[in-house]
Design a protein that fits this description.
CATH superfamily of the largest domain: Alanine racemase
Helix content: 25-40%
Bound molecules: ligand LLP
Shape: globular
Mean pLDDT: 93
Strand content: 15-25%
CATH topology of the largest domain: TIM Barrel
Oligomer: single chain
């Protein structure tokens, strides 16, 4: 499948991409040369003159070839993370949550690694199906699915649609042609609080997702679905939140959902065959932070499932998990060019050529990153600096209070690791700054996956007078 050009690996399927000059491969170094690279992709290596190579590709050369800002995605890191899940969760469907980041190449990688897909809009679904992703392995989500979403899910054959509100039940059933049936899951809220920020906690009744077990909405929705001959209730779903660092909340949620499975058998005499426990597994954004340990998560969830089901005298349902961030987050590196350095009072601001338009996460959730100067060795004493973007508001901060060499200056490169999830999928064209390109790195080769958004792209939408 892979052909080699001088220093560049190009997939046969990518030959339509316009030719770009090759990035010379960096000779491999046996082991990671610095603990400071602990949150970077496993392939990251310190190379000469303060450069770092990822997937064997020098960041300095990638910046020259593709321009900045640019996002690099380490294909091997994504694939290895998929494999970790498949090993940790045998007899389980591992489904990639596409909202973390989606593009055609990534769809191929996760499909080749045997994963399914979680989508939450007609747009994500169309991209997946037109890329050849098997629709029966797709789970369709959304708390407010539009008529277009529902009809796309039916037309394109999404394997399961997750019911998130009572309204959706009759609406969906009415769109299904006579003689056909659609498999559905019910998203339930188990009453478990977990997740790093209020905006991404979804296990309790005070937020918009799912149907409460506590107030009986989940039980009511189950009864209504069972009255619809065109809907086939395959099981229950629950996603309690995101960036969760411990296993315990998953076990609590699991016990409550198994309790509901038992209640459903008692009330309706049916045993539901599937249980989807969502995603939310934390990654470390900075050295020293806690990532959820996936092998331990897999073992403990499967053990708890077996125990709870045995106690309720239920057969063990088929398990699904839906990781997003943990598959792609640590595989991504954002690379920026410094445009200005400003010293105000005792603050140092390092302003780069991207910002909240490609990474709104610090502004939204107060997330902290560990940026690194790339491309030269500095002997200057470190200063505490705030890396900011180029956008027109003071909240446009990429990394507050981080150590930078005291001589940091315009023209320098700054890389931000753990940039693969919820950056570009939440990116905007704020201030008419185009969104950055995405480049896959693998085995010393770099390949453009998503091109930079041009001014022409942005302006072409403006069709009024
Ligand atoms: N399943 C469902 C139903 C979800 O809503 C989500 C994420 C996932 C799976 C995957 O969660 P993950 O494994 O990626 O944590 N923009 C926020 C994260 C929002 C998560 C939304 N739902 C952030 O940047 O942290």
């Amino acid at each position: 499948m892979t052909t080699s050009l001088p220093g560049v690996a190009v997939r046969a399927s990518a030959r339509t991409v316009p030719p770009v000059p090759p990035v010379p491969a960096v000779p491999p170094v046996p082991a990671k040369s610095s603990a400071a690279l602990s949150v970077w992709p496993a392939s990251a290596r310190l190379v000469s003159h303060g450069d770092v190579a990822v997937g064997g590709v020098s960041l300095v050369e990638a910046a020259e070839r593709f321009g900045t800002p640019v996002y690099l995605l380490d294909e091997d890191e994504v694939r290895e993370r998929c494999r970790t899940y498949v090993r940790a969760f045998p007899d389980t469907e591992v489904v990639y949550a596409a909202k973390a980041f989606l593009c055609r190449a990534l769809l191929h990688w996760v499909q080749e690694e045997g994963l399914g897909l979680d989508v939450c809009s007609a747009g994500e679904l169309e991209l997946a199906v037109t890329t050849g992703f098997p629709p029966e392995r797709i789970v369709f989500h959304g708390n407010a699915k539009s008529p277009d979403d529902l009809s796309a899910a039916l037309r394109l054959g999404a394997g399961r649609i997750v019911i998130d509100s009572a309204w959706e039940i009759a609406r969906l059933a009415a769109l299904i042609p006579p003689g056909a049936r659609q498999r559905v899951l019910v998203r339930v809220v188990p009453g478990v609080s977990a997740g790093s920020h209020a905006a991404i906690r979804t296990g309790t009744d005070d937020q918009k997702f799912g149907l409460s077990i506590t107030d009986g909405s989940a039980q009511h929705a189950v009864a209504r679905i069972l009255e619809q001959p065109r809907l086939e209730l395959a099981g229950l779903h629950c996603h309690i939140g995101s960036q969760i660092t411990t296993v315990k909340p998953y076990l609590t949620a699991l016990r409550r959902v198994v309790g509901l499975l038992a209640q459903i058998r008692q009330q309706h005499g049916i045993v539901l065959p599937e249980l989807d426990l969502g995603g939310g597994h934390a990654v470390a954004y900075r050295p020293g932070e806690t990532a959820l340990d996936i092998p331990s998560l897999g073992a403990r969830i499967r053990r708890e499932l077996a125990t709870s089901c045995a106690a309720a005298d239920l057969p063990v349902p088929r398990l699904t998990v839906e990781p997003g961030r943990a598959l792609v987050g640590p595989a991504g590196v954002a690379l920026y060019r410094v445009l200005a350095v400003k010293r105000t009072g005792d603050r140092v601001f390092v302003a780069v050529d991207g910002g909240m338009s490609d990474n709104p996460r610090p502004a939204l959730y107060g997330v902290r990153y560990a940026p690194r100067l790339i491309g030269r060795r500095s002997t200057a004493a470190p200063v505490t600096a705030t890396v900011v973007g180029r956008h027109c508001e003071a909240g446009d901060v990429l990394a507050a209070d981080v150590a930078m060499p005291g001589d940091v200056r315009p023209g320098d490169l700054v890389a931000v690791p753990v940039a693969g999830a919820y950056h570009l999928s939440m990116a905007s064209s704020y201030n008419a700054v185009g969104r950055p390109p995405v480049v896959a790195v693998h085995d010393g080769g770099a390949r453009l996956l998503v091109r930079r958004e041009s001014l022409a792209d942005i302006n072409s939408r403006d069709v009024g007078l």
